[in-house]
Amino acid sequence: MSYVRSTAFDETGYVVLDSYDQAADPKEWLDLEYVDWKSSGDTRFAPLASAFGDMECNGFWNHTPPRTDKDGVWVPSNIEKAPILKARAEEPGANIGRCRVIELQPDTYPTALYNLHQDDNNRLNPDGTGWIVRGFFNLSDDPDSYLILREDRFDPETEVRISLPAGRQVIVDTQRFWHAVWQKGPEPRYCLITSWESGPELDAYIEKYHGDPHFPSAALDPKFVEDAQVEVRRRLAERAATLAARGKAGQVLVDLDLDED
C-alpha cells in the first residue's frame, strides 16, 4: 500500500528534536488519572486522547466502528489538568490519534530487551493517507535511561540508544522499530506519547525543531550487551517451554501483545 510518509524518517526511521525546557513547566503529569495498561514493563497510562474520549487506552481498531490510530478524542477530566501537555501534542498541527502519558517503573537492560515490541499504529489505515508515527517527549529527568530502538529484535548491531533527560523529544516510526525503554530509576519515568499522522504539518514541525536523524547513540560495553542477550534468550526459551506445555508452541515471538513505549 502507498502511504504519505515523511522523508525525515527515510534514512534512520527516527528524529531527535531540539530539547524542550521541561523545568519551566509545572509537573502536570503528577495530577492526571492513570489506568492500568500493560506495555513494555511495569506501566500505567494517563489517557489524554482516546477513541471516544473515555478513560481507557485500547487500540482504536478494538472499538466499534474499528479504525486506525487517528482522530483521537480528548479525555475531558485529564486535559483539564494538563493544558500544557495538550498544547504540546497539538503544536505540530497533525492529526492526533492516541495521546497519553506513560508511567514506567525502573527495570533492567535485559528486561527492556525482552520487552522490545513493534507498534501496530497503521492497522486499518486507508491507502493514500498519512503513515502514523509516534512522538516521545520525556517529562521526568532520566539522563541515564535509554529509549532502545532495534530494526532487528535479536541483533544488537542494529540497536540505537537515545538518552532521556527531561525535555528530550523524539519522533519514531514505531512500526518499523522494535523499541522499549531501559529505565534505570530509581524513580518512575514519565513521558508524553502522541500518535501523529505524517504529512506536511508534521514535516514542518520536524524542520522547525531541527529534527536530527543521526543523534548519537549511547555506548555500552559489548560484554554487558552480550550478557543481556544471553539472559533474553534464556527467558524466551523458558517462555517457549511454558507455552509448549500449554499446547501453544510457536507463540513465544508474539507473546508481547504491546503497542506502546
Q: CATH H level of the largest domain: which superfamily?
A: B-lactam Antibiotic, Isopenicillin N Synthase, Chain
Low-confidence stretches: 252-261
User: If helices are DSSP runs of H or I spanning 4 or more residues, what is the number of helices?
Assistant: 5
Helix content: 10-25%
Shape, principal axes of CA atoms: globular
Q: If you consult CATH, what is the topology of the largest domain?
A: Jelly Rolls
CATH top level class name of the largest domain: Mainly Beta
Largest sheet: 8 strands, antiparallel
Strand content: 15-25%
The gyration radius over C-alpha positions equals 18 Å
Keywords:
261 residues, 8-stranded antiparallel β-sheet, Jelly Rolls, alpha+beta, 20% helix, 11 strands, 5 helices
Overview in brief:
The protein has 261 residues and is α+β, with helices and mostly antiparallel strands. The chain has helices at residues 76-79, 83-90, 109-114, 200-208, 222-245, and strands spanning 14-17, 35-36, 43-50, 73-74, 96-104, 132-138, 142-150, 159-164, 169-172, 178-182, 189-197. Strand 2 and strand 3 (43-50) form a beta hairpin.
Explain this structure to me?
The chain has 261 residues and is α+β, with helices and mostly antiparallel strands. It folds into two domains: 211 residues, Jelly Rolls (Sandwich); 33 residues. The protein is built from five helices and eleven strands. The strands form two sheets. Strands 1, 2, 3, 4, 5, 6, 9 and 11 form an eight-stranded antiparallel β-sheet that branches. Strands 8-7-10 form a three-stranded antiparallel β-sheet. The two termini are 26 Å apart.
